[in-house]
Design a protein that fits this description.
Structural class: alpha/beta
Low-confidence stretches: none
Largest sheet: 5 strands, parallel
Number of strands: 5
Shape: globular
Radius of gyration: 13 Å
Strand order of the largest sheet: 2-1-3-4-5
CATH topology: Rossmann fold
CATH superfamily: Response regulator
Distance between the termini: 15 Å
Length: 125
């Protein structure tokens, strides 16, 4: 695999440690990362930054990750960002709800480094 292009990434998780750990990892491998800690902040950050990729927790305060995904898809021009549900919810019905809300991928936390780099390598950036 060749070098990845630098992506603009939004990480959304109400668990600050999880969000900031993923932010640091993504920055270490060369990406530009913004963080939001709830659904409302996620929408604001998306509209301000227009990221290439959004890693989005499902169980967020204020607006669920499903609702955030639907709103991003409603705002996105063209294909919009790659939306990745990054969640502790792993039942098949959770995966189905994520797909219906507009997520491209459903990943169960914690994401492994290899899984992360594979996902970034396939991203449309």
């Amino acid at each position: 695999m060749g070098p990845m292009r630098k992506a603009r990434i939004l990480v959304v998780d109400d668990n600050r440690d999880a969000a900031e750990s993923l932010q640091m990892l993504l920055e270490l491998i060369g990406h530009e990362v913004k963080v939001a800690y709830d659904g409302s902040q996620a929408i604001e950050a998306y509209l301000a930054e227009h990221p290439d990729i959004v890693f989005l927790d499902i169980g967020l305060p204020r607006l669920s990750g499903y609702e955030v995904a639907r709103r991003i898809r409603g705002q996105a021009a063209g294909n919009g960002p790659l939306l990745v549900a990054l969640t502790g919810w792993e039942r098949e019905e959770d995966r189905q709800r994520a797909a219906e809300a507009g997520f491209d991928h459903h990943i169960v936390k914690p994401i492994a480094y290899e899984q992360l780099t594979e996902l970034l390598g396939r991203a449309r950036i």
